Amino acid sequence: MLRVGVIGTGMIGQDHIRRMTSVLAGVTVTAVADVNVDTAAAVGSSVGARVHESGESLILDPSVDAVVVCSWGPTHEQYVLASIAAGKPVFCEKPLATTAEACLRIVEAETAHGRRLVQVGYMRRYDTSYRALKAVLDTGQLGAPLMMHCAHRNPSVPGFYEKEMAITDTAVHEIDMVRWMFGEEITAVRVLTPRRSGNGGDLQDPLLLLFEMADGVLVDVETSVNIRYGYDIRGEIVGENGTAALGSLSPVRVRLGGQAADPVPVDWRERFLGAYDVEFQEWIDALRLDGRPVGPSAWDGYAAAVVSDAGVAALRTGERVEVALAEKPKLYDVEVPA
Ligand SMILES: NC(=O)c1ccc[n+]([C@@H]2O[C@H](COP(=O)([O-])OP(=O)(O)OC[C@H]3O[C@@H](n4cnc5c(N)ncnc54)[C@H](O)[C@@H]3O)[C@@H](O)[C@H]2O)c1
Ligand SMILES: O[C@H]1[C@H](O)[C@@H](O)[C@H](O)[C@@H](O)[C@H]1O
Fold first, then answer.
1. Which atom of ligand 1 approaches the CA of 78 most closely?
2. Residue having the nearest C-alpha atom to atom 8 of ligand 2
3. N or C: which end of the chain has fewer CB within 10 A?
4. 228-286 per-position pLDDT tens digit
5. In its keyword annotation, does this UniProt entry include rRNA-binding (predicted)?
């Protein structure tokens, strides 16, 4: 049984605790921590987990074999570095850290440790639709991929959401997804700003991002984060001979009142429910096998942060910004299955 400690018991922390305590196999949640001690105490007592006053003391708890970090992005670096220092595997929700420099510090600490400990929560790699799309691409039947059209739509975002977050917090999922989908790096980013939606207040919303991939594939990503109607994630690959797109939004089609409709998910929890389950089960199984995660690595977290930073620079300047990655350490050379 893998004994897990969860730092951050907010929305996604509670959702991951629910799946680890009532859906998945081979795992138990033994400890929780949150700066909001009341939330931590309520969540901890509901699952019989010890409540720690700090993330650092949770990491050092001998009843914690592995750590899950679900606190706010700016706090990720300290907990991931403390987990590496303690030699414990750590699953960190995206983003790995909020700057490329911080991500690089994590890469360097893990490389010095000499063995992978870090996995980043890029769950799209585990989603049935994205896996099916990649399977079609990998058959080669579409011919060479030329373009991919993506849309990332949220019904609304919290008040603290700033315009850069459309890239660093939202489109960062597409950044990781296309690196995985095409098996190559993004080399340059452009950001266009259409007419502003009245639903977002002062926020520049929507954005249109353009990614150039190393072999010439061009990816466009629409981020609309106040689009009200629901949580809608789209992706279509255009190849030389045909196209392939993510399937229907919904497992059910409703015909009612003279209309036929696919219900739209309300948020990421509903849309990626199955993906999070598979992501965590595979993480748990890999750690139980030999203590080493095999999913999205600290290097993937770093690469996504560098592209995000280039996107933010492109948004500020209106220019095309090239992406410059550090040299990839050998630790990350092994192909990951997801
Ligand atoms: N993979 C996904 O699709 C996905 C979905 C949602 C959120 N996330 C990521 O998960 C993280 C949390 O998001 P959320 O929506 O649950 O936010 P949230 O605000 O609901 O929860 C975050 C929690 O972290 C706690 N916290 C803040 N600073 C802390 C610290 N220093 N130590 C311990 N706890 C601290 C807060 O008190 C809060 O309870 C973010 O990084 C976000 O980007 C990922
Ligand atoms: O933190 C959330 C989460 O990562 C969701 O998957 C994404 O759709 C949102 O835009 C983002 O704010």
1. 31
2. 170
3. N
4. 999 999 999 999 999 999 997 788 999 999 999 999 999 999 999 999 999 999 999 99
5. no
* Domains in the chain, CATH or no CATH each: 2-123+275-297+328-332 (3.40.50.720), 125-271+304-322 (3.30.360.10)
Tokens 């870090």 belong to which residue? 118
- The span from the CA of 114 to the CA of 305, in Å, is 22
Which amino acid is it at 135?
Answer: A
Question: How many residues are listed for the chain in this entry?
Answer: 338
ipTM above 0.90, yes or no: yes
Ligand 1 midpoint to CA 189 (Å): 27
HSE value, Cβ hemisphere, 13 Å, CA-based, for 244: 21
List C-alpha distances in Å: 223 to 26, 44, 232, 247.
37, 36, 10, 19
Name the strand (E) or helix (H) holding 191: strand 186-192
What separation in Å is there between the alpha carbon of 142 and the centre of ligand 2?
A: 30
Q: What does pTM read for this prediction? A: 0.96
Query: How close is the Cα of 69 to the center of ligand 1, in Å?
Result: 8
* Cβ of 154 less than 6 Å from ligand 2: yes
